[in-house]
Amino acid sequence: MTRHALTLQTTAHEQVQDLTLQVRQLVRQSGVAAGLCLVYCPHTTAGLVINEGYDPDVASDVLALLDRLAPWHGPYQHAEGNAAAHAKAILTGTSQTILVENGDLALGTWQALQFYEFDGPRTRTVVVTLMEATS
Amino acid sequence: MTRHALTLQTTAHEQVQDLTLQVRQLVRQSGVAAGLCLVYCPHTTAGLVINEGYDPDVASDVLALLDRLAPWHGPYQHAEGNAAAHAKAILTGTSQTILVENGDLALGTWQALQFYEFDGPRTRTVVVTLMEATS
Amino acid sequence: MTRHALTLQTTAHEQVQDLTLQVRQLVRQSGVAAGLCLVYCPHTTAGLVINEGYDPDVASDVLALLDRLAPWHGPYQHAEGNAAAHAKAILTGTSQTILVENGDLALGTWQALQFYEFDGPRTRTVVVTLMEATS
Questions:
Q1: Which tens digits make up the pLDDT trace of B96-115?
Q2: Do C61 and A43 lie within an 8 Å CB cutoff?
Q3: pTM surpassing 0.95?
Q4: Nearest Cβ partner of C44 from B52, B65, B98?
Q5: What is the 3-state secondary structure (H, E, C) of chain A?
Q6: Domains: count for chain A
């Protein structure tokens, strides 16, 4: 098992960053031919998503939709004022598990691995764990 | 580690198909006694869900609710016109990980594994990976 | 691979219970130094979430928001009357996968593992599987 931490800097309050190339490079360099890749977000106001990366409008449409579902100024009690960011993190998800085969991430043709920032700008970490199959 | 691809044909714009029997059969035939089963959707306008499969009204209620949350005709920028389908895929999820024990999928009593089509009809693939435990 | 079942009793119709300490204790006692921990909810009207556990207002804000997204009395067909609980289970998720390193759960600083009850009070089970890394 190998574990890598990626550091990223988000530059806006809400933002989507594509991690596909970085994670793909980690997998290729690891020498793991087959196994599972767990990509994990250790934060509570950001999420990890696998979806279309080709047209950036998809990510901005999804950010805008999430904002309609969980508006920033809602009837929240949480004193920090960022309850909506926590809710969006829950709706998108904390981790993604992806198959590794032939030494590469087995994403679908149109799939990208994306970091969704919901309460930036912040310095963020994403933890990538590779678990090799034994047979 | 073994990897199987299931092919399915959805026959409506939105549709839920139950994959439980097919995946269960794959697990039983694999000879894997204990481990993890990763069921992965390589598409960006469909999702994988584990929920009640006994009453089909649950799935249609959920499809209708998702449509209220992410209406097909919304204020979207994505040129392909299916931003809602991408959003629903994100809200439901790209994969499910299920325990394998005693050579079978360890689902709860009322749980079914379901493929949620949000932009069909299409030919779709689901990738089932079995990772055997070593001890 | 080791598998443990936690039993919990929810005491309200909707409720969030923190499982972090219990799961952490299981991991520490297991002797597994490094690997993956799959926490799985075998129910269809409850979810597993990783999010902030420090301020209980976050969980109650999220419960209230989910109730606005999927109101209990909606235009549902499901005869049992709890379609909203099924929808909330889907929106939150059936399982969480967490890295184990140094014999401990590798959660982020502010992350807690939470059981979201959407149709209680009930006796519930959560299945914790530890899969050790071989190298």
A1: 999 999 999 999 999 999 99
A2: no
A3: yes
A4: B52
A5: CEEEEEEEECCCCCEEEECHHHHHHHHHHHCCCCEEEEEECCCCCEEEEEEECCCHHHHHHHHHHHHHHCCCCCCCCCCCCCHHHHHHHHHHCCEEEEEEECCEECCCCCEEEEEEECCCCCEEEEEEEEEECCC
A6: 1
